[in-house]
Amino acid sequence: MYAAENGLKGDPRLEAISNTIRVIPHFPKPGIMFQDISTLFLNHKVFKDTVDIFIDRYKHMGCISLVAGVESRGFMFGPSIALAIGAKFVPLRKHGKLPGKVVCECYELEYGKDCLEMHVDAVQPGDKAVVIDDLIATGGTLSAAIKLLESMGAEVVECGCVIGLPEVKGEKRLNGRPVYILVEPSQLKQS
Predict the structure, then answer these.
(1) How far is Cα 132 from Cα 3, in angstroms, rounded to an integer?
(2) Is the pTM of this model over 0.85?
């Protein structure tokens, strides 16, 4: 579900978010139109608005005990959201990045394969989780995040993404879990 369909239609914050995202053609491989959110962080108001929209969505759910951020861009939003709603933050890291005992879930990307890991003691059975990432495309990364969290007893309530690629329909891979998306992809700006 897009934020504009959920009470934020016409909200100028969504347009500002969309306008700050830079498109990098043919990265990381030919044919990919990479949605670069690093430019969003250059505008503190837009960055704050992005986080605030997620906070407004999740703070009244009351049941959220865990915010999981997908490496690496989910780390940029997840901790702030977790602090604001009184939840713990769990980083979901790429293979080999976490010390200690981990659990792992491998998945396919639109341009390769990868694995997510988390510490075995990061999740308690019954934790209610929100997964945060920058973008949903094929749904492979979010699907792996859901499987990883649920393998340790958490219940994934929702996934939240800044950008959603509607033509790819990645939410179909999430086994009915809702996805809250702020904006559609930015288009390549002509100079």
Answers:
(1) 15
(2) yes
Query: Tens digit of pLDDT for each residue in 97-147?
Result: 999 999 999 998 766 789 999 999 999 999 999 999 999 988 899 999 999
Classify residue 64 as left (phi > 0), alpha (psi -120 to 50) or beta.
Answer: beta
Query: Active-site residue numbers?
Result: 73, 110
What is the DSSP code (8-state) at residue 2? B
Closest CA relative to residue 172, chosen from 164, 182, 163, 184:
164
Cα torsion at 177, 180, 183, 188 (round to 10°)? -30
**How buried is residue 4: exposed, middle or buried, by Cβ count under 10 Å (0-12/13-18/19+)?**
middle
Beta-sheet strand order (sheet of 66-70) = 102-109, 112-119, 88-94, 66-70, 128-136, 155-164, 179-183
Question: Is residue 140 left, alpha or beta, with left meaning phi > 0 and alpha meaning psi from -120 to 50?
Answer: alpha
- Residues 6 or more apart whose CB falls under 8 angstroms from that of 15 comprise none
